[in-house]
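Field notebook, page 323. I keep forgetting to write these up properly, so this time I am using the form the group agreed on. The chain and the ligand, serine, are recorded exactly as supplied. Prediction of the bound pose follows.
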Amino acid sequence: MPLNFFNVVLMQKTILILGACGQIGTELTLALRSVYGNSHVIASDIREGSKDLMASGPFEILDATNYAAIEDVVMHYEIDEVYLMAAMLSATAEKFPMRAWSLNMNSLFNVLNLAKENKISKVFWPSSIAVFGPTTPKEMTPQTTIMEPSTVYGISKQSGERWCSYYFNKYGVDVRSIRYPGLISWKTQPGGGTTDYAIEIYHKALSDKAYTCFLKADSKLPMMFMDDAIRATMAIMKSAPENIKVRSSYNLAAMSFTPAEIAENIKDHIPDFKILYEPDFRQGIADSWPSSIDDSRARADWGWKAEFDLDRTTGEMLRNLAP
Ligand code: SER
């Protein structure tokens, strides 16, 4: 059939994002809308999100733990792909272990089961560096290695990875996943993560020229600027199925730094910026995670390459957050 306007529109897939109002969901929704068209990307969350997000396309109030409600939306909009971005992050999950387990696991089962029943054809589910634990090699952590996560969040992500792999092998579910490092962004505030300090520090540098960090000066963690994370997410989802050889989740890396290093970097722009250290319970979480990640499998399988280092990230953050 020759391609014309009408059958191109008919071939256009429709995407549902669960947890669209969160830190990643907000930017991912806007990015997907710019590629697939606003009306083809349905945002959903348990509450409304930013003005930009709400104004740019369809939105549904939707609880990711409610299978029947998700199924209704999937049927109504004839959804092809689901991105499951709803989750409770590491620091909050330590305070509410059962709620974290229930949200993080039930939402995943809902989406995997919709795919198993052929109601959707493709799933994106984010994993995290939190799948690793104190016994994992810390530097250049390999794709396949010891994984004994010691946090509630990490246990849920590690279990989730096993289920993704199981649904792919057993039922042929096309589920794709990335182990995100700490994500740095300026459009939407993060919520309840251990790596959130690397965002707060820019806000406080601009407002107070001082920041009290809840991690120690030398806690080195893997990090990534949000634009890279969105690009990676869209790239893995666009890649041909045969390229996706890891069906648990891919290691992904961009940069690693300590609180002391990011503070020095900020001082290049704001010379009298001061940092103090008052480590709290999140130090224990950070100590259990890797310092740097080997992402060679993602590079080889679907052509991943990070673009933002710490200098570029600091420049973008300070420019965009400046009053
Ligand atoms: N950034 C997340 C957190 O700190 C890790 O996936 O919880």
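OBSERVATIONS:
- The pocket of serine is lined by residues 89-90, 128, 130, 153, 180, 182, 193-195 (CB under 6 Å).
- The chain is about 45% helix and 15% strand.
FOLLOW-UP: compare against the apo run.
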